[in-house]
Design brief:
Blueprint: E1 5-10, H1 14-27, E2 31-36, H2 57-61, E3 63-66, H3 69-73, E4 79-82, H4 89-98, E5 102-106, H5 116-126, E6 130-133, H6 140-150, E7 157-165, H7 168-171, H8 191-207, E8 210-218, E9 230-239, E10 242-251, E11 258-265, E12 268-273, E13 278-283, E14 288-292, H9 299-315, H10 323-342, E15 346-347
Parallel strand pairs: 1-2, 1-4, 2-3, 4-5, 5-6, 7-10
Antiparallel strand pairs: 7-11, 8-9, 8-15, 9-10, 11-12, 12-13, 13-14
Helix pairs in contact: 1-9, 4-5, 8-10
Length: 349
């Protein structure tokens, strides 16, 4: 690898810009950043998703833009960040892999299995490092939950209840929700792939990979979208020889936003509220132990996943959140869709 790493950003929307800001913050001028842009939008975002009027992102962060992907790849980047619309993730990742780039794939890796086998073959053939952007694994509440589960503080797990909800209408204050990729099937939209996918990732990370799912999904509100706005699924996880029900709900409708996880065990309950940055362990005798993280900065999750990914590149090893992790969350999402469409339980391999 050359002394100065060259990074290609495929997409410079809000998440792409966040990664660039964090790369500059962590690695300064030791990296060169180029970008492939398609839509021609030139909004410059802040960490709080506010548009900074009159600011050129490319000038401020030293990014050279290209409007043809072949031209950008001809610059021989070492790493490609796939941060464009979901429907283009795999086609762009395949081109980056063919150019022998290590790859950071934003979630979800795709909305179908099309092209997955080809990308897997390229990753293996060229020995590429590939990471996936599930930054919520770095949330202090979920990290603490994983510790508590490993310590068996509530005994055997009996059931899990996971919920997320947020109003699509106000999610991106700078644009009409009807024009967002989240609202359009052809762009990879829907509440499952754009929001619940985070919960599906940490379900398998914390509790084990599900063996089946039954799901009811659909567009139940008056939102002007052509994708599902509600998804309620019952996954079954086999853990230590026992079957555990994991209920997962997501919607594009709730305000204020909610993101929580409740774990019921033989000896107590663990309640996690990601929005309030709070975890509680409630024992059967009524005692409550709380962990609260008031100073937690949401951007730190993105920095941690970034640092882990670049360390994996240096070590030529799998990052903490590997391509296989992203692939399994995709299979969980696709199984939930198939279950709802056919009104039956779907087995996961």
């Amino acid at each position: 690898m050359r002394s100065i790493m060259k990074i290609l950003m495929i997409g410079l929307g809000s998440i792409g810009q966040r990664h660039v800001r964090n790369i500059r913050k962590c690695y300064g001028d030791s990296v060169e950043i180029i970008a492939y842009r398609v839509r021609g939008l030139h909004h410059t975002f802040s960490d709080t998703m506010q548009i900074r009027e009159g600011v050129s992102f490319e000038e401020e962060y030293g990014v050279t833009a290209y409007y043809d992907l072949s031209e950008a790849l001809a610059e021989r980047p070492d790493v490609a960040f796939i941060t464009n619309i979901t429907s283009e993730h795999i086609p762009c990742a395949i081109k980056a892999a063919e150019a022998e780039c290590d790859i950071f794939l934003e979630k979800p890796i795709s909305t179908s299995m099309e092209g997955i086998s080809k990308l897997q073959s390229l990753i293996a053939e060229k020995k590429l490092v590939v990471g996936v952007g599930f930054q919520n694994r770095y949330h202090p509440c979920l990290k603490r939950l994983k510790e508590l589960l490993s310590q068996n503080v509530i005994g055997n797990i009996l059931s899990v209840d996971v919920e997320m909800g947020e109003r699509l209408v106000t999610m991106h204050s700078y644009e009409d929700y009807r024009g967002t990729y989240m609202a359009q099937k052809r762009l990879g939209g829907g509440v499952i792939f754009n929001q619940q996918i985070h919960e599906l990732d940490y379900i398998s990370w914390l509790f084990g990979t599900p063996v089946s799912v039954y799901s009811v999904n659909g567009k139940f509100s008056d939102l002007e979208i052509d994708v599902e706005d509600v998804c309620s699924s019952l996954y079954v996880v086999e853990r230590e020889g026992r079957r555990i029900p994991v209920y997962a709900h997501a919607d594009f409708l709730q305000s204020p936003p909610v993101r929580r996880c409740k774990v019921i065990g033989n000896d107590g309950i663990i309640m996690v509220d990601l929005m309030q940055k709070k975890l509680e362990v409630i024992s059967h005798n009524g005692s409550i132990k709380s962990d609260v993280y008031p100073k937690f900065d949401r951007n730190n999750m993105y920095i941690e996943e970034l640092v882990n990914f670049f360390k994996a590149i240096a070590d030529r090893d799998d990052p903490a959140i590997s391509f296989e992790s992203g692939l399994y969350s995709l299979k969980m999402a696709l199984a939930a869709q198939l279950s709802s469409e056919n009104d039956k339980v779907i087995l996961l391999d």
